[in-house]
Structure formats: structure tokens, C-alpha cells
Amino acid sequence: MSSPKQSAKLAMLLLVALLLLCNSTVGNVCCSRNQENSVDLHALLDFQRGITKDPQGALSNWSTTTHFCRWNGIACTTTRPFRVEQLNLPGLNLQGKITSSLGNLTFLYLLDLSYNSFAGTFPILNHAQQLQYLFVNNNSLTGIIPDALSNCSSLLSMDFSLNLLVGAFPPKIGFPPSLIYINFESNQLDGSIPNEIGQLQNLESLVLGDNRLSGQFPHAIFNLSASLRVLSLEKNMLGKTLPPNFGYLLPNLKNLSLYGNMFEGHIPASLGNALGLQLIDLSSNKFTGKIPKL
Ligand SMILES: *[C@@H]1O[C@H](CO)[C@@H](O)[C@H](O)[C@H]1NC(C)=O
Ligand SMILES: *[C@@H]1O[C@H](CO)[C@@H](O)[C@H](O)[C@H]1NC(C)=O
Ligand SMILES: *[C@@H]1O[C@H](CO)[C@@H](O)[C@H](O)[C@H]1NC(C)=O
Ligand SMILES: *[C@@H]1O[C@H](CO)[C@@H](O)[C@H](O)[C@H]1NC(C)=O
Ligand SMILES: *[C@@H]1O[C@H](CO)[C@@H](O)[C@H](O)[C@H]1NC(C)=O
Ligand SMILES: *[C@@H]1O[C@H](CO)[C@@H](O)[C@H](O)[C@H]1NC(C)=O
Question: Is the confidence at residue 275, as pLDDT, over 80?
């Protein structure tokens, strides 16, 4: 039989033990504010399952024995509940597919999987509404789903260059209007550049060189006269004439690269109006007439 004094001591000990439990890593179980951060854990574990080869052991410390915020390539918010803000795994020879579970990382603002060997289609990232920087250049991605990025309403920069993307530059591609930088260079996209591009009022760089794009120079681009600085359409099959007032329509251009297409007619003398032009390459086209004084 224990004395009342002993029972009180025991109860006290139990209480202390419980408090300790709640404050330690086991706290995940007892505190609801950590539910969101378990969404992140599951999204990352699912992403890890999609990776079939990791020759450098880049994900060797992706184990539930340590908090995911300390895993290689992960950066989290600095306050509780710790949420994934960055997934940064460039140049590690990773192979596999990019899973749509990354779309569950609602605090993610940077996703850099460039210079790896990810294959398959780029997934729909439907809840990644904070995503600003998306770099998946130099992989082996074969497709992009038209709506994949439509919910990424904070997206500023996306780089899909040096992949194996085929088919039409998707006309209904739900590009968020926040975009400043688009790079699809060195893929196998065909068809014409969709008019919807003219709705991206913040777009500064449009880099679509080395594809199989055809049709006329996309006039919707002239809707971007205030923002557009870099226009790179080289090595495609774009054709016909450029409008004489080209340089007045895009007065802020710095880089204009149209070489290796099928443009014909005169080189617009109005290019001299774009005073900021630093690089202009119109070579390997079918332009005729005099070279204007720029
Ligand atoms: C992503 O979140 C949805 C609910 O929003 C859930 O049904 C799904 O299982 C999650 N996927 C992963 C891999 O965590
Ligand atoms: C996991 O690996 C990365 C890169 O080597 C390192 O910065 C990080 O501290 C490691 N985390 C743990 C918990 O060992
Ligand atoms: C693409 O990445 C591979 C390594 O993953 C590298 O060997 C190759 O040079 C890169 N290509 C370009 C054009 O940067
Ligand atoms: C975008 O988000 C909304 C609301 O969360 C959802 O209903 C819709 O299916 C999402 N669209 C895509 C393409 O993921
Ligand atoms: C041009 O931009 C306006 C918004 O400023 C937009 O309403 C319109 O649809 C755009 N036109 C084209 C052809 O994209
Ligand atoms: C313009 O093109 C040149 C030469 O390719 C390059 O060095 C420079 O970084 C480009 N500028 C911008 C703003 O892209």
C-alpha cells in the first residue's frame, strides 16, 4: 500500500513525463499545429519514393530519424510549424520522376531540380501557391501538362530548358500572370507561339530558342512593350515579315535573337528606336534589302 504522499509524488512524475513528451519530437502526435508539417513530411517521402537512382547518395540522410528540415537540400521556415520553403537538389545525377506530391508543399517558394536526369511528365503542382522559382532545366522531362502550373499564382521564374518536351507550346497553358522569366530553350516544342503569351504583363524574358516553333512572329508579344527585355527565338522555323514599327512596339528590348529562322522582307529600321539594345542577331534568315542604320 502506498501512502497518499507517495501517490502525489507519482502523479507529479507522470505529469512531468507527459509534459516532456509533448515538447520533444514525439510532440507531433499530441499537437495539432504540427499536422501541416506532417503533410510536408509525407510529400517529401513520396518524392523520395519517386527517385530510382541516387548515385551520389544525395538523399542518404532523408530518414525519419531526423527532422526533414535537416535533410540535404531542404530549407524550412524558421518558426513553428516548420514548413518546407526550398527544395534544392541541382546537379546530383538523380533519376526517377518528379511526383505531384510536391504540390502539397504549400510554403515552397524555390524548387531546383536542374541538372539531373528526371524523366516523365512534369506533374500538376496544385497547392504550391507560394512557388516563385522553378528550375528543372537539363533533365529528360518529356511533357508538361497544360494546367500544371496554373495554381502557382506566385511564380516568377521557370526554366524548362534542355529537356525533351515535345508537342505544341500548349495554347491553354495556364501560365500565371506573375511570370517574369520563361525559358523553354532546347526542347522539341512545335506549333505556333500562343496569343495568351500577351497576357503576361510582367514578362521580361522569353527564351524559346532551339525548338521547332513555326508560324508568324507572334504579334501578341507586342502587348508586352512595357516589360519585355529579352526575346530569344533563334533556331526555330518562324517566318514571314516583321512589322516596320517593330522597334517602337518593343522599345525596352536589350537582347533580340532571331537567328536561324525563316524571316523574310526588310529588317525594320525602327529597331534603332530600341536604344537599350545590346545584342541583336538576325543572321541566317531570308531578309532582303539594305541593312538599316540602327
Ligand atoms: C497531398 O494532399 C492531398 C490532400 O490535399 C492528399 O490526399 C494526398 O494524399 C497528399 N499526397 C501526399 C503524397 O502526401
Ligand atoms: C544531411 O546532409 C547535408 C549535406 O551533406 C548536411 O548539410 C546536413 O547537415 C545533413 N543533415 C543531417 C541531419 O545530418
Ligand atoms: C546537362 O547536364 C549534364 C550532366 O547532368 C552535363 O553533362 C551536360 O553538359 C549538361 N548540358 C548542358 C548544355 O549544360
Ligand atoms: C487549383 O486549386 C483549386 C483550389 O484548391 C482546385 O480546385 C483546382 O483543381 C486546382 N487546379 C489545378 C489545375 O490543380
Ligand atoms: C494585352 O494585355 C491586356 C491587359 O493589359 C489583356 O487584357 C489582353 O488580353 C492582352 N492581349 C493579348 C493579345 O494578349
Ligand atoms: C544578352 O545576350 C548576351 C549574349 O548572349 C548575354 O551575355 C547577356 O547575358 C544577355 N542579357 C540578358 C539580359 O539576358
Answer: no
Residue whose CA is at the smallest distance from ligand 2 atom 9: 70
For ligand 1, atom 6, the nearest C-alpha belongs to 104
The Cα 183–Cα 135 span in angstroms is 10
CB atoms within 10 A of CB 141: 23
**186 alpha carbon, closest ligand:** 3
**130-152, pLDDT tens digit by residue?**
999 999 999 999 988 777 888 89
pLDDT tens string 102-123: 999 999 999 999 999 999 999 9
Query: Ligand 3 in contact with 138 (CB < 6 A)?
Result: yes
Place of cell 531526423: 66
Kindly give the distance from the C-alpha atom of residue 288 to the centroid of ligand 6, in angstroms, as a whole number: 27
CA distances from 56 to 34, 50, 190, 202 (A): 32, 16, 36, 39
Which domains are seen in the chain, by residue range? 4-288 (3.80.10.10)
Asked whether the bond before 81 is cis by omega within 30 degrees of 0, the reply is yes
Q: How many other CB atoms are there within 10 angstroms of residue 276's CB atom?
A: 10
Residues near ligand 1 (Cβ within 6 A): 42-43, 46, 101, 104
Expressed in angstroms and rounded, the spacing between residue 279 Cα and the centre of ligand 6 is 7
